[in-house]
Design a protein that fits this description.
The chain is of the alpha/beta class. The protein has eleven helices and eight strands. Helix content is 47%, strand content 15%. It has a four-stranded parallel sheet, with helices on both faces. A four-stranded parallel sheet has the order 6-5-7-8, sandwiched between helices. Strand 3, helix 5 and strand 4 form a beta-alpha-beta unit. The chain starts with 5 loop residues before the first strand and ends with a helix.
Length: 337
Amino acid sequence: MYPMKKGVLIINLGSPDSTKTSDVRKYLREFLSDPKVIDVWYVRNIILNLFILPFRPKKSATAYRKIWWKEGSPLIVLTERLLLKLRERMDIPMAMGMRYGNPSIESGLAELKAQGCEHIFVIPLYPQYAMSTTETVVDKTQEVQQKKFPGLKIDYMPPFYNDDEYITILADSIQEKLPEKLDKIMFSYHGIPERHIYKTDKTNTCEIGKCCFKDSNPSHPTCYRHQCYKTTELTTAKLGVSKKQVMQTFQSRLGNDPWLQPYTDATLEKWPEKGIKNIAVVAPAFVSDCLETLEEIAMEGKEEFMEAGGESFTYIPCLNDSKEFVDFLENKIQKWQ
């Protein structure tokens, strides 16, 4: 038997093709039609057809225009840069795909298949596991593989929320950007509905708020809330700052159902009246800067905080295509090979 030729596919969330309202609508339709994102079918249909698609694309297009680069979507451009740096480092076929939008997961697998690859290492660029991130990426990749490339063998890189190398480079990236005058560091993670936590728990042992801080629990490998708190805990320890100087929040909620709390926007509005007026914000649920970090946090979040009486607001960028993050992924690929 000859060894199977290997390849690597890195997968990120995705982005509209442009800031045109029509392209944003197309992207939102695909994204919000995913049952792993909005998991109640009748709610999904009502929200999409009555509330989001008639009105949201225009507003979202305006938001995208605020952060759009000359080269294109920041998330796409940053993922391309990351891929280019990995290709320069390693002699193995590599491609990229997006869960939603272009380039697709199918096109990424097709690119690797055309180069003769038979064994693929898929890297979902999500530190923490969630139904609407890692799980939907794996599901979509398996669906494409079974329909289009049944001969391909695929392995997946697991979530790296507690990986010591990842925690070290995350902490170093935060430390480098911390301002001298600092009252609090906010770790803002993308929010999800509480029911998603229970849906991903196949062990039926999860109780939100009761098991997240335990050293171990059968639900932890798929518990987004636990993994977020673990990332915050480990990074705080690596930074060497007091736990009292750090707070974790959740952003980007949609609808009226209970979502993970505390909420980022509400916290930013309340902090100044509590004397917390000089802050730094980091978004460790993302490895690539995107609409949720560049517009929602660095622009809207800052505006909310400053209007409430804040004095200084420092947004700390994602790891993006930094040398340290490239090193991290290179090490993971080498271990897989």
